[in-house]
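Archive maintenance. Older records in this collection stored only the sequence; we are now back-filling the structure field for every entry so that each record is complete. The fields below show one back-filled record exactly as it appears after the update. Entries are processed alphabetically, and non-specific serine/threonine protein kinase is next in the queue.

ARCHIVE ENTRY
Title: non-specific serine/threonine protein kinase
Organism field: Brassicogethes aeneus
Length field: 318
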Amino acid sequence: MNALGLSMIMKMGCICTRESININGTKYVVNERLGEGGFSCVDLVENTTTKKKYALKRILCHSIEDQKRAMQEITYCKKLRHPNIIELIDSTFKGSADIVVQATSEAFLVLPYYRRGTLHDYLALRSFSKKYMDIKDVLRIFCDISKALKYLHDFTPDPVAHRDLKVANVCLTENMDPILMDLGSCAPATVQICGAQDAQKLQDIAAETCSMTYRAPELFHVESYCIIDQRTDIWSLGCVLYAMLYFKSPYDVVYERGDSVNLAVISGTVHFPEETPYNEDIHDLIKLMLKVSPSERPFIDKILERTEELKNKYDNVV
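Back-filled structure field:
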C-alpha cells in the first residue's frame, strides 16, 4: 500500500472513531478540545442531525459534593435568562458519584459555541501589536457586561453573585456582544460569616473557584464576623475594565513578576501606564471599583450610571 492510501485510511479511521455522546436523545460528535480547567473541560461538538456546532462542557465529579456543585451550575444556567448571560441548550448526568466505592459521574452541559472565543482571547491577540481598543467599543462592551451583572445582583427572590468574573469568562458573539459564562462559581450574593470556621470555609472556596488576579481583597482574608456581598463582583469588574484597556488585569502583571498578588490586592495598589490613549475619567471609574474596603465600593447601579455618562460623553465626540 502506498503512503497516500495509508494516509487516507488513517484519516478515515480518525473520523470513524470520533467520540459520540448522546444527550437526552440527541447525538453529538466531538470535533476538538477547546479548553481545560481544574474541574472541567470544553469540547467543540456537532449535532449529527442538524450539523450545528455547540460547546460541550464536561464536569467530572468524584464525590457527592462535586455532583451537587455541578447540579448547582446547571440550576443557575436554567434560571438565569439574560441576553448577555450564556444560555443552557441541554444537560445531563452520566454515571453516579459514590464516595464509598469511589465511583465518578460526569455532568454534560450543551452551550452555544462562540467562534470568536472569549474576551481574553481577543485581548491577547490585540496585545501582540499593542492595538488598544477604541474607547467607544470598550464602554459598549463594558456596559453590557455590567447589565448582565446587574441582572444577577438584582435577581429575585435571591440575588446572585458571580464570584469569578474575568475576561476569560466572557465570550464574544460575531457582533462583539459580550456573553457572561461559567456560572459554576455563582452563589447567593450575601453571605453572613459567623466565626472563624465560616470564614475559613469561604476563604477556601474562594481560593478554589475565584481566579487570584481578579479576586476581591475580602476573599483573600475573610474576617471571622462580617457580611460578604455582591461587591466582590464590583472589584472583579474593575479588573475586567482595566484588562480591556491594557490587555491584562492589573494583578496579572504582579503575578507574572513573581510578586505577591495577595499583598498587592490588599494594599490597593493600581498602576496605570504612563503612556496611554485613554483619558483620566476611565481610570477614575476603575479606581472607584478597586476600593480595598467593600463598604467604600459602589453597587452595580452606580457603575452603570457612571458608564452611561461616559458613553454619552464619547458618543458625542466625532
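Update note: The mean pLDDT is 92. The CA atoms of residues 28 and 50 lie 10 Å apart.
Entry marked complete.
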